Amino acid sequence: MDTIFAEATPPGRGGVSIIRLSGPDARRVTEDICGRLPESRYCYLRSVRDGDELIDSALVVRFDEGASFTGEESCEIQLHGAPVVVKRLESALESRGLRKAKPGEFTLRSFISGRMDLVEVEGLSDLLSAETEAQRKLAVEVNSGAFGRLVDGWRETLIEAGAQITASIDFADEEIPDDVISGLDVLIAGVRDSIADQVSAFPANERLRNGFEVALVGAPNAGKSSLLNAIARRDIAIVTDQPGTTRDVVEFRADLNGLPVTFLDTAGLHDTDDMVETIGIERTRLRAQGADLRIFVGPVPIEVADLRCADDILVETKGDITGLPGAVSSVTGTGIEELLDAVYESLRTRLSETGLASHARQADAMAVAVDALQDTFGLPPEIAMDSIRIATRELERLVGRIDVEDYLGAVFSKFCVGK
Fold first, then answer.
1. Can you tell me whether residue 227 is helix, strand or coil?
2. Which of 38, 111, 202, 273 could hold 363 in an S-S bridge, CB 3.0 to 4.6 Å?
3. What whole-number distance in Å separates Cα of residue 227 and Cα of residue 231?
4. Partners of 213 in the β-ladder
5. Who's near 349: CB < 8 A, 6+ residues apart?
6. d(Cα 56, Cα 18) in Å, to the nearest integer?
7. Would you state the torsion angle of the CA atoms of residues 303, 307, 308, 312, taken in this order, to the nearest 10 degrees?
């Protein structure tokens, strides 16, 4: 395998820029331009040179094979954070036969070397793109190996059950106690139910990873756009007295007490002959239907009354004008915080406390495993054993041990260069 390098810090001007190297020539090339690095995991202040030319002074550290992020021999060079310095060092590395890494290539090598399983890789990807505290917590737990350990526990239990079933087949003439067989049924059912719990928790975790959507729905001039601006605390949507001002969906992404929430300002719902406005109203209905929560501003329009759910929120606006009890005011801010608290509580209750799966690939593999283990009770040993094999194979696919080649490109392409 060739040796790769990339800038691990964001490109541009900064205090420090870190260049990461990984591969069989990482130490040789680093010592060629930086001088000898006797001990691993120690930082050394070195002059970085390309021949006789001084490039910069830097802190340099190396990692032995098997003790680095990628599992390969690796080095890091911490330069002053000027783009021209980084470019000059990269030129020196390329002249020595090193190649610039592709997006996610360092993490891919970590996966190939067995330093990370596939769910940990997906957790790392989610962590790098996390925008809120709740997203960070879920990603950190998955990346720490919690999900992988749970899957390994399921797999080990199924292997144990399969071994005992195989023994009962191979030694059919022996008397197998009834309590042994019933004990196997309990083991398999326990694994099946535990996997099913994770499948059930997946939709909420997926929404947490991608973000919730909350649609503001109402008639023209009900105050939806003013309410969106009050929530955002800046002018995002155009506000006028003219009906039909909002003709397309306007979005505002927010961090609501750690939850990622996108508020949608939608077109006012009413009968109209305006073709453009009609398109906007149709889009409103589709987005309102797909939203996790709807805030009906004023009376519920008949056009979307069928979409209303029990936990949707009804709110009166223009409280500073009407004086109605409980009405919010986008002008004075009265009731806005209470409204956001209600939105948060509604969305928070949908989250799972124990669920770890947040990718469709993970949920699909677990669903197949659950189906395979659904009715093993009372089956002939040969058929039960086949069900266990199917479930075990899906768990191995889940953590990336088998049959994931087609998926790897999609996973690692989401990473930035240098990770």
1. helix
2. 202
3. 6
4. 262
5. none
6. 13
7. -120
Classified as helix, coil or strand, 215 is: strand
Where is pLDDT greater, at 345 or 303?
A: 345
213-245 as b/e: b if 16+ CB within 10 A: bbbbbbbbbbbbbbbbbbbbeeebbebeeeebb
Closest C-alpha among 417, 411, 414, 410 to residue 100: 417
Rounded CA separation 262/251 (Å): 6
Instruction: Look at residue 74 in the predicted model and tell me its pLDDT.
Output: 97
Q: How many CB atoms lie within 10 A of CB 114?
A: 9
Vertex 134, ends 129 and 140: CA angle to 5°? 60
- Structural tokens at position 204: 């909420």
| The two three-digit tokens of residue 373, written as one number | 């283990």
- The beta-strand segments (E) located in 133-283 are 212-218, 250-256, 259-265
Provide the pLDDT for residue 220. Answer: 80
The candidate with the shortest Cα–Cα distance to 151, out of 365, 2, 295, 317, is: 365
Q: Is the pLDDT of residue 265 over 90?
A: no
State mean pLDDT over 191-214.
93
Tokens 């990628």 belong to: 70
Q: How far apart are CA 256 and CA 274, in angstroms?
A: 36
Q: Burial of 102 by CB count in 10 Å (0-12 exposed, 13-18 middle, 19+ buried)?
A: middle
The token duo for 287 is 């987005």
**Torsional class of 159: left (φ above 0), alpha (ψ -120 to 50), beta (otherwise):** alpha
Question: E strand or H helix at 132, and its extent?
Answer: none
Distance CA 255, CA 274 (A): 36
Cα–Cα distance, 295 to 336 (Å, whole number)? 12
Give the CA dihedral 182, 188, 190, 192, nearest 10 degrees. -140
Task: At 65, list the tokens.
Answer: 């094979």
The answer to whether the beta carbons of residues 316 and 327 sit under 8 Å apart is: yes
